[in-house]
Design a protein that fits this description.
It is a single chain. By secondary structure, this protein is α/β, with parallel strands linked by helices. Helix 6 packs parallel to helix 7 and helix 7 packs antiparallel against helix 8. Helices cover about 40% and strands about 20% of the residues. It is built from eleven helices and 14 strands. The mean pLDDT is about 95. A hairpin with a 2-residue loop joins strand 9 and strand 10.
Length: about 350
């Protein structure tokens, strides 16, 4: 059943996240005036559904029959939601009053804006940016993602340096505003990704058909981060390396594909070697498994690439740094975006 249409629907994907719903859902319900709030549940077994029914009867519940992951979980749920704008919001995000207003006003001013994100700061350390999204997502010339306010593991202190509005390359899936017609027109999130980097792939596809992806620092939310998979989890390592390579294969234009992928493979193997030296054997193995899995499923990825609308020269796109952040960070010891 499709809900009554609204301007903005905030959809929180949940899987055994009862503790986050208890802590953060109250702020979403209280501070999101005029928005429909929905929890899409991926077959949780921790009492999430009874809690919602008892304490938040005004929140609509969509129950998926299995844990479909971030990507397909949202794809299934959003087919059942009618609104002009979707907000894909992690369950571990605290939101202040009127947080949606600056984003919606910006998107209403330009129908070419398909995706937008607010400033993301740390819930635990609110003077610092949060890893997932920070001040807007970027890519370097080799397709490595980073954010204004975050290079690799280094997070900048928020001193108002990104209180701006600008076009970026990608918006974080932790808090992503997206036009519903664009979401469905592009086929939603890549289901094979399961989780991680799916928002980069989606934004790249949107840019390839002429849409803008924006950051609006006039809205700010507070994110815990790492609620589902800790950053040191080998499963997360596997997903990041597999999806990072699939992202390039799907979206790079033909003239840039071979050289970029070869360099990235070599750098991935170097990263795996560093993990091995650091005693992270499971993570090193996860990198190799990621590459092997891509080869095993190469037929699927070739099909997905053929379905893409590849456009222009990748380094010329808005939100792309034409150098290498690996070189800048590890060799030249640059730690902030403004030092690049």
């Amino acid at each position: 059943m499709v809900s009554n249409p609204s301007l903005t629907a905030i959809v929180i994907l949940n899987w055994n996240g009862l503790r986050y719903l208890q802590e953060f859902l109250p702020s979403v319900v209280e501070n999101s005036t005029g928005c429909e709030v929905i929890v899409a549940d991926n077959a949780s077994t921790d009492g999430s559904i009874p809690f919602l029914r008892e304490h938040f009867p005004q929140v609509r519940i969509i129950q998926n029959d299995d844990n479909y992951g971030f990507c397909e979980g949202y794809n299934i749920a959003l087919r059942q939601v009618e609104a002009k704008y979707y907000v894909l919001l992690n369950s571990d995000v605290h939101v202040p009053p009127d947080w949606t207003d600056p984003i919606i006003q910006l998107m209403e001013s330009d129908e070419n804006i398909a995706v937008c994100q607010p400033k993301i700061v740390s819930q635990q350390h609110p003077d610092f940016f949060e890893y997932a999204g920070a001040g807007g997502g970027m890519l370097d010339a080799l397709g490595y993602p980073y954010c204004r306010g975050r290079l690799f593991e280094t997070l900048e202190e928020d001193k108002g340096q990104y209180n701006d509005v600008m076009e970026v390359f990608w918006a974080t899936g932790a808090c992503m505003f997206v036009r519903s017609n664009v979401f469905h027109g592009l086929g939603g999130l890549e289901p094979a990704f399961f989780a991680h980097m799916e928002e980069i792939d989606f934004c790249w596809r949107a840019k390839n058909v002429g849409y803008k992806v924006m950051y609006n620092g006039h809205s700010q939310v507070y994110h815990v981060g790492g609620g589902t998979l800790h950053k040191s989890n080998p499963r997360k390592t596997y997903l990041n390396f597999r999806n990072g390579m699939a992202l390039l294969y799907k979206n790079l234009p033909p003239g840039e594909l071979f050289s970029t992928v070869v360099i990235r493979i070599l750098l991935d193997w170097l990263a795996a070697f560093r993990m091995l030296l650091a005693g992270q054997r499971a993570d090193a193995k996860a990198v190799l498994n990621a590459h092997a899995d891509l080869l095993r499923k190469s037929k699927y990825w070739r099909k997905r690439r053929k379905e893409q609308h590849l456009k222009g020269t990748f380094p010329a796109m808005s939100g792309v740094y034409r150098g290498s952040i690996v070189w800048q960070y590890f060799v030249r010891q640059r730690r902030t975006v403004r030092e690049l």
